Amino acid sequence: MNLPIRHHNQVLRPSSFCCTAHTNGAANRHSHDPRSKRDAKRGRAKGIVMRNFLSLALACLLAVSNFAIAEAKDERPRKVRLPVHSRTTAYAVQTVSVRTGCFSPRLEGILAHIAVKTGRRPLVTSGHRPRSHRSGSMHRFCQAADIRVSGISDSAIIAAAKTAPGIGGIGRYCNGIIHVDTGPKRQWAYCGKSKGHFLSAKRRSGRRA
Prior knowledge:
Muramoyl-pentapeptide Carboxypeptidase, domain 2; seven-stranded mixed sheet; alpha+beta; 9 strands; 4 helices
């Protein structure tokens, strides 16, 4: 039979004392648990990452706001130079291997004139050919272009080329290609060799380029 223990007019029950001691021991073990320490460290690390992310987002938002304010304040009219003829966009190339970077302003002006007259951009099928077999070809000097204009007849292209400032030679091939260059004024039609190896060419003046 358990009897209560009296101490300074208080009654202490052994069962209560044991429970209290057990609770304190569990708390001490929990405070020294390595898992709890790792969880605490992970929590602190996540908090730091979240704070850094929020700081970065806030900085980006402030930068965008400042840029928008600066653009709104800048109401001065900007000077934009527009060419009379957009020569570099007045024609297209059939493939990336077609060389047109050395075209002179005069030749580009001819192509731009054809584009304005026909309402369509010429498609350059051949430009600079430094290894052309014909020594007098204007293609060797990057002063000639073979073109097609989709949806436009050969006669309409030739008519537009004739009125181009600085036009030189104009040639017509039976495959629908029109030749223009900045050389001497001349005009020809060339259909190549037929099955009987007959050269059918109609030249009016000068040589074919």
